[in-house]
Amino acid sequence: MNADKHQVIDEIILQLQDLDVNYGGIKALKKINVTIKKGELVTLIGANGAGKTTTLKAISKIVNPQTGNIIYNGHNINRCQAHEVVKLGIAHCPEGRRVLAKQTVFDNLMLGAYIRSDQEIKADINKQFDLFPRLAERRNQLAGTLSGGEQQMLAISRALMSRPKLLLLDEPSLGLAPAIVKEIFAIIQNLRKTGMTILLVEQNANLALQIADSGYVLEAGSITLTGAASKLISDERVKQAYLG
Ligand SMILES: Nc1ncnc2c1ncn2[C@@H]1O[C@H](COP(=O)(O)OP(=O)(O)OP(=O)(O)O)[C@@H](O)[C@H]1O
Ligand SMILES: [Mg+2]
After folding, report:
1. Other residues' Cβ atoms within 10 Å of the Cβ of residue 24
2. Is residue 99 a contact partner of residue 154, using CB atoms and an 8 Å limit?
3. Among 15, 114, 190, 223, which is most buried by a count of CB atoms within 10 Å?
4. Angle of helix 105-112 versus helix 121-131 axis, rounded to 10
5. Domain boundaries 12-96+164-242, CATH class
6. How far apart are the CA of 138 and the centre of ligand 2, in A?
7. Quick one: average pLDDT of 191-203?
8. pLDDT single digits (tens) 124-170
9. Distance (Å, rounded) from C-alpha 33 to C-alpha 17?
10. 23-48 average pLDDT score
């Protein structure tokens, strides 16, 4: 599962500069620095409570950083609100999927397009159904009755409905059987091949580093290691702490 490098161009899409996030007295992120280039698949790995979800929430403006900058396509988005960030092309596929259980697959996908007013929404839903045939078969099924893997596919697909330039994925493998995880990771790899820039948060460091271009290790709110995914996967510190 070697990442295919040729599509990465040298243009930076996102930069986190000395980002601090506190929840009351808890310092969840301590001056973290992350750089993502266009077309890259970057993974952020770390143990429970390391600050992975907080990093994604800061980018999508669900939480506000105390200090530091979030630079997206050359613009500081520190002061943007969550819906503005979606309009700028950042989609967040949250931890635990968060599909609307009592709405159908189709309606969940429509919801993903809430910021759009163009005429191509229905056509994009059909594209999603080509990409995720399992969702096509279940388009009128209530999302809450989908399997865990299908809900994850729906959550990714819903995020894609905003036509993002940067996709944030929070633990897509969580709680899924190995065969489904393989399927989801193949989908992520395919998205990357289409040129999508992806920030993938994972506890499954081994799988994430296998498909990523580069990686960051987050420990108790600080970035402790960074580099090419192919280097990190054979780094003794990473092996001992995250690869068993
Ligand atoms: N809303 C909140 N209020 C207070 N503390 C919070 C809140 N959300 C997260 N935290 C704390 O911030 C730290 C980082 O949490 P975060 O959810 O970002 O970790 P994580 O790396 O995503 O963990 P996991 O792998 O368990 O999902 C933790 O110590 C957590 O308890
Ligand atoms: Mg988390």
Report:
1. 5
2. yes
3. 223
4. 120
5. alpha beta
6. 28
7. 95
8. 999 999 999 999 999 999 999 999 999 999 999 999 999 999 999 99
9. 5
10. 96
Q: 184 CA distance to ligand 1 centroid (A)? A: 24
The CA-based angle 162-168-172, given to 5 degrees, is: 110
Distance 102 CA to ligand 2 centre (A): 24
pLDDT tens for 109-123 read 999 998 888 899 999
Q: Is 240 exposed, middle or buried (0-12, 13-18, 19+ CB in 10 A)?
A: exposed
Residues near 74 by beta carbon (within 8 Å), at least 6 away in sequence: none
Quick check: 244 pLDDT over 80?
Answer: no
The CA distances from residue 212 to 174, 185, 228, 238, in Å, are 18, 10, 8, 15
Task: Give the number of the atom of ligand 1 that is nearest the alpha carbon of residue 54.
Answer: 18
CB neighbours of 102 closer than 8 A, spacing ≥ 6? 142, 143, 144
* Ligand 1 residue neighbourhood (C-beta within 6 Å): 23, 26, 28, 46, 48-54, 95, 203
Residue of the CA atom closest to atom 2 of ligand 1: 23
**Where along the chain do its domains lie?**
12-96+164-242
Report how far ligand 2's centroid is from the alpha carbon of 53 (Å): 4
